[in-house]
Amino acid sequence: xxxxxxxxxxxxxxxxxxxxxxxxxxxxxxxxxxxxxxxxxxxxxxxxxxxxxxxxxxxxxxxxxxxxxxxxxxxxxxxxxxxxxxxxxxxxxxxxxxxxxxxxxxxxxxxxxxxxxxxxxxxxxxxxxxxxxxxxxxxxxxxx
Length: 144
Fold this sequence. Notes:
The protein has a single domain (41-143), classed as Aminohydrolase, N-terminal nucleophile (Ntn) domain (Glutamine Phosphoribosylpyrophosphate, subunit 1, domain 1, 4-Layer Sandwich), CATH 3.60.20.10. It is built from 2 helices and 9 strands. The protein has helices at residues 60-76, 83-104, and strands at residues 4-9, 12-17, 20-26, 32-38, 45-47, 50-58, 112-120, 125-131, 137-143. The strands form 3 sheets. A 5-stranded antiparallel beta sheet has the order 5-6-7-8-9, covered by helices on one side. Strands 1-2 form a two-stranded antiparallel ribbon. α1 crosses α2. It starts with a strand and ends with a strand.
């Protein structure tokens, strides 16, 4: 289970997550085990015109796949930078992701939710976009 927190603060926001990932495996005797390891779940990156940190809870394979797709969409965007443009890019990418990747995923549990902390240096806008039930999103906090 991934725990993620997004909260506004003076002059910004805080986006935090736990750092444990549990990986099931079978040992040399065929016994089921769970390996727990520490991972960096939030990794801010400058992608195109935006600084973004994308984290998610739920189906790990789908989360990792969406992060790659979101980074590609942001990197190739040529529209003027703004919080509204970023939100549209993310929502459009998520809708396409549902139609292609989620439908094709063989897992029984396809649930996930995303938190995207962002900063738009050109407009000095920042905030946290949170997906709702995997599709669509809302801005939890946005400042200009």
